[in-house]
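Bit of a strange request maybe. I'm writing a small parser for structure token strings and I need a real example to test against, not something I typed by hand. Could someone generate the tokens for this chain?
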Amino acid sequence: MNYFNKKKYLKKKLIKLKIKNYLNFLKKIKNYNFVFFLSVFKNIQNFGKKVFNCFKLNKIKSKLNFYFKKKFYT
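Reply from user aminoacidic:
Good idea to test on real output. This should exercise your parser:
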């Protein structure tokens, strides 16, 4: 693995780790309200625009949607 590929690989790993940490952080929060939910969504969008392409951003959104729907409606 040359330097460029290694750097790219490590960056992907770091991004995956950031997503995992963010989702775990959201799971730990028990008492959240709708305003907080909207602000989290905005943060994810801004973070996503900087780091990800559109496909990955939509993937994260759908995961969050699923998680919050599960929490709100069950």
